[in-house]
Design brief:
The complex is a heterodimer of chains A (326) and B (330). With 326 residues, chain A is an alpha/beta fold. Chain A has two domains: 123 residues, translation initiation factor eif-2b, domain 1 (Four Helix Bundle (Hemerythrin (Met), subunit A), Up-down Bundle); 194 residues, Translation initiation factor eif-2b, domain 2 (Rossmann fold, 3-Layer(aba) Sandwich). In chain A, strand 2, helix 7 and strand 3 form a beta-alpha-beta unit. In chain A, helix 2 packs antiparallel against helix 5 and helix 5 packs across helix 6. Chain A is globular. In chain B, the strands form two sheets. A seven-stranded mixed β-sheet of chain B has the order 3-2-1-4-7-10-11, sandwiched between helices. Chain B is built from twelve helices and eleven strands. Chain B is α/β, with parallel strands linked by helices and 330 residues long. The chains are: A alpha/beta (326), B alpha/beta (330). The interface between A and B is large, with 43 and 43 residues. Strand 8 of chain A pairs parallel with strand 3 of chain B, so a sheet runs across the interface.
């Protein structure tokens, strides 16, 4: 029963953004699947594990393209293995080594991005970032290791306070950090040299889905002629968007903004708390991937290189149905 | 020279400083009320000394918050009149006049908020979604007047970190029966597509029509401008700053970090600098109109209001400036 409680906690943490970065979100989801598959002893158990756990994981964080892309690959691989009449042990091994490989690749790509991204940072730069991002953290550290003196501006990121967590993380790593409220972004922008942000997902048109507030930051940067860079691996491309799907933006529970006690005290007040927003490509100067720096408008080019054209992707729900019939 | 002021005057000054008394209009009325209490509490017998005593009280009140111009304008409303007449006054006349001018200002201020509501509500159409920030009596007056005239409106209220004045706005509007939704400040651009117009208050309007208001206002105006949503500022004429006419900059107050994070956090992470600007400046090009109690004006016409309303102080300031400049040239 314990893993079931763990699963509910994981789903909650993913949905409410307690697991901040999308890289961490994918890591947690994949590690969970790997553990569960590891416990299975028959093909049916493996199938049922995926059928039971994959859809809610996707639903909890539909914006995280990395999570969605990785889970899709796992389901595709499983279908393929079963079709090729592998036994349960072999399928398990395949899934587990695939997950290990994906996690390794994700980390490798972050290191590559850090190497490329650090070159865009100059000695003495003040960099404004938003929320907690594992990729951004790596770029900043790399720049610092190259001997550049940089300081960081970061808004607190209501209601979750992920910006405060990132500030603490940066402080522990020895960066000079300045923290402020989310609404002070335009006020602080004049003193910033560049904006560096991570991404949950990158859509077919180069639009970037990220933590709420990112599009405001990009807009304020655009107005002040401060460059905006997005650091994100190509695994974060949302392939569904090439088929016309829209990245689903989730809302968080009202209680994250107001305690239920406060809600009652305010009377008939509604609360809306979107978790993510979309930054249009025209406010982004470049996307930094493990394959190099390019304009957001060039996303289709890279997608063609990696996944072929048009990218053949199946919706996870379709794949799950296919798995059920196997 | 230090004077002993009535306890209530000190309490009002402290209330303004600690933000127990918030909002440019409320601060102005509280300051003028403090002047009245000070005058009534004067225990001396010399009219010249009374003037010095009142100047002492004024300086104390003026030192509480640097940004909102309503405070110096309100104090000047009473004190400039006193200074112009002091030579001819007996002590009793001086005290009575301070009381009269204070009451006059408070009444004018309250009436102005109501007038702004009447004038501004014409810009709201039934079915509109309005976005507002912080807790401005002038902006709320516009929204509530529109609602009371039977217009069916919805409001997005930003929570307004660090002190969450948006919650007071939400509560006030909900009590009026208005459909109100509280949103985090970072979600303004997310919702701007649904919004028909933005109405905010002002702490200070500068000579060029730039509006100094609660931190976040300039972000909202920028997001509105991007989405072609109109931005209206509701501001009484005593929020226009005569000092900016002679080139002075409006000081943006940066408040203590403990309003953003707690003391424990600051102790644990001494290297993290926390900045807490209380206001920002919205450039006139993002403002469609300023709604005053004397009518709707373009922000670029701010100088008109300043020339009309503050002719006396502008003259004085110019004279003073000329004097210092002449002195420097010599």
């Amino acid at each position: 029963m314990r893993e079931y409680e763990d699963f509910h906690k994981l789903i909650g943490d993913l949905r409410d953004g307690r697991i901040f970065g999308s890289t961490e979100a994918a890591e947690k989801a994949l590690t969970f699947i790997k553990e569960q598959v590891g416990l299975c002893s028959s093909l049916n158990e493996i199938k049922n594990t995926l059928i039971e756990y994959v859809p809610p994981l996707v639903k909890a964080r539909p914006t995280s393209a990395l999570t969605v892309n990785c889970l899709r690959e796992i389901v595709e691989l499983t279908i393929d293995c079963i079709k090729r009449k592998m036994d349960a042990q072999k399928v398990k091994e395949n899934i587990c080594s695939k997950i290990d490989e994906m996690l390794r690749k994700a980390h490798e790509s972050v290191k590559m991005i850090a190497g490329i991204g650090a070159k865009r940072i100059k000695d003495g730069d003040t960099i404004l970032t938003n929320t907690y991002s594992y990729t951004v953290l790596n770029v900043l550290e790399k720049a610092r290791d190259e001997g550049k003196k940089i300081s960081i501006f970061i808004p607190e990121s209501r209601p979750g306070g992920e910006g405060i967590d990132m500030a603490v993380e940066l402080y522990k790593r020895g960066f000079p950090v300045t923290l402020f409220v989310d609404s002070a972004v335009r006020y602080m922008m004049k003193e910033a040299d560049l904006v560096l942000i991570g991404a949950e997902a990158i859509a077919a048109n180069g639009a970037v889905v990220n933590k709420i507030g990112t599009s405001m930051i990009a807009l304020a940067a655009h107005e002040a002629r401060v460059r905006v860079f997005v650091a994100a691996g190509t695994y974060k491309f949302s392939l569904e968007t090439f088929l016309g799907e829209i990245v689903e933006l989730t809302y968080r529970r009202p209680e994250v903004l107001l305690s239920s006690h406060e809600l009652r005290a305010l009377g008939n007040v509604k609360v809306l708390c979107p978790a993510f927003d979309v930054t249009p490509p025209e406010y982004i100067d470049a996307i930094i991937t493990e394959r190099g720096v390019f304009a957001p408008q060039a996303v289709p080019l890279i997608v063609r290189e990696i996944f072929g054209w048009p990218p053949l992707v199946k919706d996870i729900s379709v794949l799950i149905e296919e798995l059920k019939r196997c | 020279m230090n004077y002993k002021l009535p306890k209530e005057v000190l309490e009002i000054a402290e209330g303004i400083r600690s933000m127990k008394i918030r909002g440019a209009g409320r601060i102005a009325r509280a300051a003028v009320k403090a002047l009245k209490i000070a005058a009534l509490g004067y225990r001396g017998s010399n009219v010249k000394d009374f003037y010095d005593y009142m100047m002492y009280a004024s300086k104390l009140l003026l030192a509480t918050r640097p940004t909102a111009v309503s405070l110096p304008n309100a104090v000047a409303y009473v004190m400039s009149r006193l200074s112009r007449n002091i030579e001819a006054f007996s002590l009793n006349e001086a005290v009575d006049s301070v009381v009269k001018w204070s009451d006059e200002f408070i009444e004018y201020s309250l009436k102005a908020t109501q007038l702004i509501g009447e004038i501004g509500e014409g810009r709201i159409k039934s079915g509109n979604i309005v976005l507002t920030h912080c807790n401005s009596s002038a902006a709320l007056s516009v929204i509530i007047t529109a609602h009371r005239k039977g217009k069916d409106i919805r409001v997005y209220a930003c929570e307004t970190r660090p002190k969450f004045q948006g919650k007071i706005t939400a509560k006030t509007l909900a009590k009026e029966g208005i459909d109100v939704t509280l949103i985090p400040d970072s979600a303004v651009r997310f919702f701007m597509k649904d919004v028909d117009l933005v109405i905010v208050g002002a702490d200070t309007v500068a000579a060029n029509g730039a509006v100094v208001n609660k931190i976040g206002t300039s972000m909202i105006a920028l997001a509105a401008h991007e989405a072609r949503v109109r931005v209206f500022v509701a501001a009484e004429t005593y929020k226009f700053s005569p000092a900016t006419v002679i080139g002075e900059l409006v000081t943006i107050e940066e408040r203590p970090p403990t309003e953003v994070v707690d003391k424990d956090f600051l102790r644990r992470y001494p290297g993290i600098k926390v900045r807490n600007p209380a206001f920002d400046v919205t450039p006139p090009e993002y403002i469609d109109a300023i709604i005053t109690e004397k009518g709707v004006i373009s922000p670029h016409a701010a100088i008109l209001v300043l020339r009309e309303e503050f002719a006396w102080t502008l003259e004085e300031r110019m004279k003073k400036l000329k004097l210092t400049l002449n002195y420097e040239i010599e």
